[in-house]
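Hi all, posting the design record for the shared folder.

TITLE: backbone redesign
STEP: 1 of 1
STRUCTURE INPUT:
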């Protein structure tokens, strides 16, 4: 008889997270925790909730940012300016393992919800403060949104064309802070398992994105000059750029060494004489003569359809990629072949969503719960705290909860 082993439980099963959060940085961090099995109670304002709910209506009437960052959470709508609403949060925190907040600088401290205060009251609690620029220094009180931090961290200065710097097309500062908050919580949970104590975790968007700037930052600090903005091209490797094909597509290719250049010249460009031409034979020479190299590659690929260009490059062992738009990514054959898409519930019905990138073979699938309606779980959560239906009705009547 074959005995099938039960899948391992999700690693954060039994962990409770309370989050007073908004926008992207904290919600994306806590969504990772929810996907791995944690119970996440999301505390929102009664007057519209997390303001990311109103960014757009692209996801069948829901905001695309909110759908992306908030599946699998319980939404509780409270007025934290009312002592009764604040008391609900304090009672939730008393039984929680993790607390996360990314309110405006100083707001959490005024409410007594900053990490230092909460950890002093609850020694096993892990409390995360996410801020724009950190709790001290001349920028501590400065308003911080993703694009502003991209500018302050120098990301915009190295992104774009020689003529025009541009911001990243995704909220890179928010995502960087979210992922360090997520990993910080995991590290603190491991430490608590050893010591029995939680403690504060601090993450700033500027610190996180400055770390991601490692290559250009070290280049500038030690060489004295930052890497040049080169659009899709590489500043110091040639050819490494996107080239148009005959059917209107674009293919990006990367030649990493001189052996690859010879294969490219002989098998793709069909210009064997260029393989050992002193003007092109080394990367240093190709960088000097970038325009001529790019012209050779552009001429060859411009005569081929996208599929044929990719096939010829792959047959020659040259790294390449199609330049896809976002709609094409949603239908990417590799994601489809690996069954990476799921459907999650929402107030407007099922919505497509990608499995989280962390895969735990032999374990349960990620818990991709529904996207909550504002205040959808308020009553259930309050009753679990011991409140009666009369208590809840009174709070609703007074506008303390929704």
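Okay, here is what came back for every position:
SEQUENCE:
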């Amino acid at each position: 008889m074959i005995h099938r082993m039960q899948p391992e439980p999700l690693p954060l099963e039994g962990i409770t997270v309370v989050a007073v959060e908004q926008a992207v940085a904290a919600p994306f961090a806590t969504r990772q925790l929810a996907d791995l099995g944690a119970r996440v109670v999301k505390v929102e304002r009664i007057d519209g909730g997390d303001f990311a709910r109103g960014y757009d209506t692209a996801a069948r009437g829901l905001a695309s940012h909110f759908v992306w960052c908030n599946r699998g959470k319980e939404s509780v709508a409270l007025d934290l300016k009312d002592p009764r609403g604040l008391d609900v949060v304090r009672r939730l925190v008393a039984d929680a393992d993790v607390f996360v907040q990314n309110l405006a600088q100083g707001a959490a401290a005024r409410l007594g919800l900053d990490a230092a205060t909460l950890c002093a009251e609850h020694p096993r609690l892990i409390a995360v403060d996410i801020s724009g620029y950190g709790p001290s220094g001349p920028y501590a009180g400065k308003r911080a949104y993703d694009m502003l931090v991209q500018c302050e961290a120098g990301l915009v200065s190295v992104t774009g064309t020689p003529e025009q710097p541009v911001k990243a097309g995704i909220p890179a500062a928010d995502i960087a802070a979210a992922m360090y908050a997520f990993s910080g919580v995991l590290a603190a949970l491991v430490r608590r398992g050893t010591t029995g104590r939680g403690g504060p975790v601090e993450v700033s968007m500027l610190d996180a994105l400055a770390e991601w700037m490692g290559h250009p930052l070290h280049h500038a600090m030690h060489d004295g000059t930052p890497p040049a903005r080169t659009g899709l091209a590489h500043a110091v490797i040639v050819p490494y750029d996107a080239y148009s094909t005959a059917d209107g597509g674009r293919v990006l290719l990367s030649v990493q060494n001189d052996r690859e250049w010879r294969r490219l010249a002989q098998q793709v460009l069909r210009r064997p004489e260029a393989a050992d031409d002193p003007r092109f034979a080394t990367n240093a020479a190709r960088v000097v003569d970038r325009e001529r190299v790019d012209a050779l590659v552009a001429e060859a690929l411009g005569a081929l359809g996208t599929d044929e260009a990719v096939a010829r490059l792959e047959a020659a062992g040259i790294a390449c990629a199609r330049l896809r738009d976002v709609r094409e990514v949603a239908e990417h054959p590799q994601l489809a072949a690996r069954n990476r898409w799921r459907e999650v519930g929402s107030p407007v019905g099922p919505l497509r969503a990608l499995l989280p990138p962390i895969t735990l073979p032999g374990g349960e699938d990620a818990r991709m719960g529904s996207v909550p309606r504002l205040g959808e779980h308020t009553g259930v959560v309050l009753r679990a705290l011991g409140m009666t239906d009369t208590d809840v009705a009174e709070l609703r009547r007074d506008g303390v909860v929704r």
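COMMENT: The mean pLDDT is 96.
Let me know if anyone wants the other runs.
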